Amino acid sequence: MSSHRLPEAARGAPRARPADALVIAGLVPMSTVDWPGHLTATVFTQGCPWNCHYCHNQALIPTRTPGVVAWQEVRDLLARRHGLLDGVVFTGGEALRQDCLADAVREVVEEGFRVGLHTAGCYPRRLADLVASGLLAWVGLDVKALPEHYPEVVGRPASGEKAWESLRVLLEAQAVGGPDFEVRTTVVPGDVTAADAVAVARLCREAGVSSYALQQARSRGTREGFVAVAPGWDSQCERMAEQIRALGFERFEYRPA
Prior knowledge:
With 257 residues, this protein is an alpha/beta fold. Helices cover 31% and strands 19% of the residues. The radius of gyration is 20 Å and the shape is globular.
């Protein structure tokens, strides 16, 4: 008697959904540091259009590197973590680079979790669309430098305009009940990021930003030869932090390396 195997779909195998296309470089099942005050699972997406010289996730920059975690693993994790996790943070790389991010975010919200997003502001229109969907509860936005100095930091023209436009998107949304957000500036010794940091913070405060963080760059995960320390650097950062604190943000945090 001949046997005929049914196709997997006919045997009840789960159908692929749009979020399954998300290219994921890593998954942290439980994190206390990626969304201030929240316990989250953190999804690291692969690929970023910018090439920041101090990036501590260099391996996540290439856009053609295949993922190592299937989205189904995130689904399975969330099914086990109801009541234990506050939400899920999507970071990168640059999560907004991937068209299917919105599908993944929607799945997480439908599963009963809140969603946070880390973004460098590379895609202000995509950010605006996701904010308008009402699916985001919180955003961590990197504002790296004054607009005119962005190409020096990220290696791409017109990058400053995009990042600062992303800030405008979040400010306008917050005024009508949109997601909370934090602006973060990361500083490197002897670099334009450090020279600009206080001016960046002042512009953000004047624009209406209420939550701000100053971060020291870290050496781990960066490209070979990158140096994140220098004589007197800690003291210099502490002075910057005090100047920024004096600007009167509702929430300010200094994060040393």
